[in-house]
Amino acid sequence: MTESSTDLASRTPRSSGVQSVARAAALLGAVVDSPSGGATLTELSKLTGLNVSTVHRLLGTLCAEGLLCRSREGDRFQPGPVLLRLGRRSLASTGLPEVTAVLKELADATGETASIGMRRGDRVLVLVSVQSEQPLRYLGEPGVSVPLTRTAMGVALLAFDTPSPPQRTPGERRGGDEQAGPDPTEDAEDAEDAEKWSWHVRLLAAQFRGYAVLDGADGSGLRGLAAPVDSGSPYIQLAVDIQGPAGRMTDDRLDALGARVVAAADSLRGLPVALALGQL
C-alpha cells in the first residue's frame, strides 16, 4: 500500500465533493505507482482502503474523463490519454527533455559520455547520463554519489563557487615562528600544505580555462572535463561533464572539448531544470 494513497484516501474531508476528489486522487496515484502495468478493481480497493463499490463508481468516472482506461484484457486499470498528456506537459515544463537533448548533443559532438550532476554537501550526485557510442567508453552511473574532489564536476563547482584555499608557502610553520626547534608534525604539515597548494593550482587552472579537468586517481585511465551550470537557484548547484579514456581525451584536444562542455552548460542556463533535478 502506498503511503500517499492511503493518507489521501483516509483524510477527513470538509465536503462530499472534496472527499470524492481526494478518493479519485488516491486511485490515480495507486494506478500510476502500480509496478505491474495497472491494477485491478480489487487491488485498488486494497491499496486505497476504499470499499469496492466506491472504487467501482470512481473508476467509471475517471475512465469516462480519460484519466484512466482499461487494459486490453479489461481487468486492469491504467493511465488514460488525458493523464498521460498531463504528465508529458508537466515533464516538458521542468526542462528535463532539454537536458537529455543537450547531453545527447554533447556526447555526439565529443564522442564521450556526458552527464549532469548536482552538489549535495561535499559530494556530487550524478543525475542523468547519455553514453558515448564508442566501444571503449565510460558507462555513466546515474544515482551514484561521488566526493567533490573525485569528479570533474566537483572541481568545477568548487572552482567557480568556493573561495580559493588560503595561500601559505609550503614549509611555513603554523604560528609564524621560523626560529622554533624541530616540529614532530612538520612533515605532516608540509604534506598538507603541498596538497592544499595542489588544489589551489587546480582551482585556479579551472577558473582560467573556464572548465575543470580531472584525471582518475584510481588507475581507471579516465579523464573528465566539467563546467558549472547556472541553475538560477543559489541552493541547487549543477554541473555538466564528459568522461572518457585519457588516451582519447588528449591534452591537445582539451580546449576544443572544454569549449563544447562550456557551451552545453551555457545552453542549460535559464531552463527550469533546477527544481525538477533537485527533487531526484
TrEMBL record:
Domain IclR-ED: start-end pairs: 82-277
Domain HTH iclR-type: from-to ranges: 18-81
Q: Which domain of life is it from?
A: Bacteria
What is the protein's species of origin?
Streptomyces olivaceus
* Annotated segments matching region Disordered: 160-194
Which residue ranges have biased composition labelled Acidic residues?
184-193
Its protein name is IclR family transcriptional regulator
Q: Which PANTHER family match?
A: HELIX-TURN-HELIX TRANSCRIPTIONAL REGULATOR, ICLR FAMILY, HTH-TYPE TRANSCRIPTIONAL REGULATOR RV1719
Stored InterPro entries:
GAF-like_dom_sf, HTH_MetabolicPath_Reg, Tscrpt_reg_IclR_C, Tscrpt_reg_IclR_N, WH-like_DNA-bd_sf, WH_DNA-bd_sf
Gene3D superfamilies in alphabetical order: 3.30.450.40, Winged helix-like DNA-binding domain superfamily/Winged helix DNA-binding domain
What keyword terms does UniProt attach to this protein?
DNA-binding, Transcription, Transcription regulation
